[in-house]
Amino acid sequence: MKSTIIKSTGLFMLWGALVFTSGCKKFLEEEDPSNLTAESFYTIPEHAEAAIAAVYADTRFFGGGAGIFSSNWQMLEAVSGTTTTETAQNSDLNNLYSLSYDGNTGHIVNWWNGLYRVIAQANLVLEKVPGITPMDDAQKKKILGEAKFLRAWAYFYAVRLWGDIPIVTMPQTATSDDFFPSRAPVEDVYKLIVEDLQAAEAAGFLWMDATGRVSLAAVKSQLSKVYLTMAGFPLSKGASHYKLASDKALEVITYANANPGSINLFNTYADVHSLATENRVEHIFELQYFADVAGNPMENMLPNFKPVTAYGASGTGSTVPTLSFYQSYETDDLRAKNQLGYFYTSYFQDGSGAVYNLGAPYIFKHFNVVAFGAPGIIGSKRNDLNVPMIRYAEVLLTYAEAKNEGGGPDQTAYDAFKRIRDRAQLTTPALGTYTQASFRQAVWKERWHELAFEAITWFDMVRLRKVFNETTKGFDDFVGHINKSSNQPLQAKHLLMPLGVQEMLNNPNLKTQNPGY
Fold first, then answer.
1. Residue 506's CB: how many other CB atoms inside 10 A?
2. Distance in angstroms (rounded) separating the CA atoms of residues 14 and 11
3. Buried-state track 358-387, b at ≥16 Cβ within 10 A, e below 16
4. Is 356 exposed, middle or buried (0-12, 13-18, 19+ CB in 10 A)?
5. From residue 203, how far is each of 95, 119, 127, 137 by CA, in Å?
6. How many angstroms from the chain centroid is the CA of residue 426?
7. Pseudo-torsion of CA 358, 364, 367, 370, nearest 10°?
8. Are residues 69 and 115 in the same domain?
9. β-sheet bridge partners, residue 482
10. What is the pTM of this model?
11. Are residues 55 and 140 in the same domain?
12. pLDDT tens-digit map of 253-298
């Protein structure tokens, strides 16, 4: 299932060793085929496939290492205030938890480098693949659409993290005129993101693609996310973009309603972290992991050296839920029930033995029972689990929020919202009991509880300028809200990440650091 993307990752660098094994009798007359360049590489359709595989592979910077007991993805969870650490041995991660990070923080530097690497690889595909002849037109259009989606995916993260950022749309060399690019306005970055996604939307994708490649549902869902963000801060485009967000989400919902076997909510939360359901049904877009190439990176969520997996007394516990966030779920919420939802408070000795009481809640949403073990079943110690980027649950909540902003909740917004609560086995007040304001906060709260630990919460905080208060169950203004994980208040400067110090030294055209850093 994952071979399309992951097993072909190395082809981008190694393809020459495969395609030039014939015709060796002319070796002395020909240019050395091992000296590959962009010009000599992009000559046949297989090169295009290998090149797009390299772009997909680079998205896995998301789970790359960030020093001892830490990975890049932890940055977005640490600053949200919903998680804490049991390890505290990584100084950069500690600085993120305590909101004292700066332009030298490793995770921040890694995110910048990782996102721009995806952009650079996508730019190569977009520049070189059109010239490959002969090549099937549909195949070429699809690959170019994938490259545009992945470039937009990277820019969407970058603009939300740093605001004004360089726009690079062509392959770069040291002699390029814009080798030291300046920062472009946020509005211009979003213009490119929307244009790329609209081009991808017309690329001829299947509605869903079980191989893990970009699908039409992924493009439309991503567009709805982008429009929802543009409606909020910092662009504050308001009603027009809430309408765009709801309309685009509704396209996915309409298809799902007509094809519930293709797109739907899973029946159980166990399916959210099951190998059997990857790239299917609720999982609209995921980062692909395969242990022979790159194993799932989320094991920093495991308890700190507690013997509840096939690995024995292992795990780092450097991202675990705060007790206050865990307790903020409603009493009967299935998502907070041990091993039935997104948390667990006990598991099994070495993954498959006697019940082991953990003494605290931990994150079950990314727990791979095949790798770690289950009652009476010894774990494989092979973590191939994908990392979700877009789930259908998010599409439903995006629709409910955006539709409500058009004048209050209607039946369709209420039904989308209620589906999330129904799966959690919660009773939902009747539609008529909600005002626009109360429905708005109800949807926000569901986003916090349903989409937790998926690198989404922080961006909700930034676009809304609001933060869920676990004690009051209401929403505080972003500035002044105290993260329960550290008892530190959020400041205006935290709305953006700092630019990396070394990047600013390397590129003098970046000039001004973000405010407050």
1. 10
2. 5
3. eeebbbbbbbbbbbbbeeeeebbebbbbbb
4. middle
5. 43, 19, 16, 11
6. 27
7. 80
8. yes
9. 489
10. 0.93
11. yes
12. 999 999 999 999 999 999 999 999 999 999 999 999 999 999 999 9
Token pair, residue 407, equals 């004048």
* Within-domain flag for 376: yes
In a domain, 74, yes or no: yes
Instruction: Judge contact between 55 and 150, C-beta under 8 A.
Output: yes
- Unique residue bearing structure tokens 């909600």: 434
Comparing 25-29, 353-357, 501-505, the range with the smallest average pLDDT is 25-29
Phi-psi sector, 407: left (phi>0), alpha (psi -120 to 50), beta: left
Whole-number average pLDDT of the chain: 93
Residues 180 and 213 in one domain: no
**Distance from C-alpha of 257 to C-alpha of 128, rounded to nearest angstrom:** 39
CA distance 458 to 253: 25
Name the burial class of residue 334, with classes exposed (0-12), middle (13-18) and buried (19+) by CB atoms within 10 angstroms of its CB: middle
> 44-49, long-range: CB within 8 Å, 24+ apart, which pairs?
44/19, 44/132, 44/135, 45/132, 45/135, 45/136, 45/139, 45/140, 46/11, 46/15, 46/19, 47/15, 47/19, 47/132, 48/125, 48/129, 48/132, 48/135, 48/139, 48/140, 48/143, 49/8, 49/11, 49/143
Render pLDDT for 211-249 as a digit per residue (tens, 0 to 9): 999 999 999 999 999 999 999 999 999 999 999 999 999
Per the structure, the complete domain to which residue 434 belongs is given by: 209-288+386-455
- Among 166-175, 274-283, 468-477, 493-502, which stretch is predicted with the lowest mean pLDDT? 166-175
What are the tokens at 131? 């010239």
